Amino acid sequence: MGSASELVIPFLGALQAAVSVLLTIFYGVVTAQFNLLSGKAAKEVSGLCVRMLLPALLIYKVGSELQQGTALRYLPILIWAIGYNLLSIAIGSVATRFFNLPSWATPAMAFNNTTSLPLLLIQSLEATGILSAILRHGDSASDAVSRAQSYFLINSTVNNSLTFALGPRLLRPGDEDAPDEEGNNEGGERGNQGDQDGQQERSQTDGYDDIIDEHTTLLPRHNVRRANAVGLDTWKIGKEQWERLPQWAQNFLGTAYMFANGPLIGAVIGAFIGLIPPLHKLFFNKVSEGGYLNAWLTTSIKNIGDLFASLQIIVVGVKLSQSLRNMKKGEASGEFSWKGFLFITCVRFLIWPAVSIPVIYFTVTKTRLLNADPMLWFAMMLMPTGPPAMILVALAEVNGSPEKQKMAIAKFLTVSYAITPLISFAVVGALKACESALTT
């Protein structure tokens, strides 16, 4: 009876997290069905989530948890996150070619949900009280959960940085939905610079009275022309300096630029604030203790960051609604790949837990590489486990993927989250491994 309850409690916790995600997807479907959010608006919301809300969430979470005295405990997470993500990318790339899967299967295999689902799962497990078995002496459940959330968010920083740096390349190869997409992109990239030159030069001479809409600037015309002239001169100087660089330097800077995305910038800002004691005090202490920015600036950053998880899932619901509408009309609605679904499910819910739990357990019991925080062990065991990232929809939007590919991804994500309670087996295994490590 005891062993049954040990499985039932985490299963219910995982079920609650899964149902929470599925209900939020359903709310997105309802939103689209009642025309409360159009496809174009959903695309803009998805961009908002990636470029503003997720960075804000990372600034708050990383900044509040990362301090000079605690910085070293995040180093193993960075190493582990880079390692398992790169291995997942390799597995996804090989499997996509070997099994002839759609191109979106590679990033779906490579990048799992490291933000919304783990945060919801940890909250559900806290509510059931199951985490009390791995709490340190004198440690409160709320403090342990807060640390676990920060661990998952550090992992999410690496995951999202790799997603937007490597994801667009992973989506393009062999994309049968858009055979000329890559060529169009290359031509567009070559033509963009010329178009920008022309637009900037014309803006200095053309009037602004031809088209007046919501994009029309409110600044005086001479100020706009002066700003455009300065911008054009700066661009030309930068281009000349770029062309003087050796090829290896251009390649290095080009690769580095791919990683300069919103989530990584947000995490860096959070780390900068957290690691400098005066800034950490200003942003996160109580007002009576010198936290003069906490009540207004920090709170505002936290408020918009908390919107990320739900809004990103709402967008998936909108895309799913579009797919269902097209299916009803007999139009292209994105092809669901059962072969890809079964393979990714097997790897993410079975193979990765079977690898990560023993690896972390061995590291804890046989080495001193990890500190004595069971929540750190538990989080690292679960990091590679779970369904694909909801942010894949945002990646497809940023990448300019065809609509039927976006709808196929929305279908795939919905089915993947419907079976998310399977993660309960990994949760039980991780809890038992942590308990055993505590007594070793």
UniProtKB/TrEMBL annotation:
The chain crosses the membrane at residues 7-30, 74-95, 252-276, 296-320, 341-364, 376-396, 408-431. One of its GO terms (cellular component) is membrane. It is found in: Membrane. Pfam families: Mem_trans (PF03547). InterPro entries: Mem_transp_PIN-like. One of its GO terms (biological process) is transmembrane transport. Its main location: membrane. It is a multi-pass membrane protein. Keywords: Membrane, Transmembrane, Transmembrane helix. Residues 171-204 are annotated as: Disordered. It comes from the Eukaryota. This is Auxin efflux carrier. It comes from Westerdykella ornata.
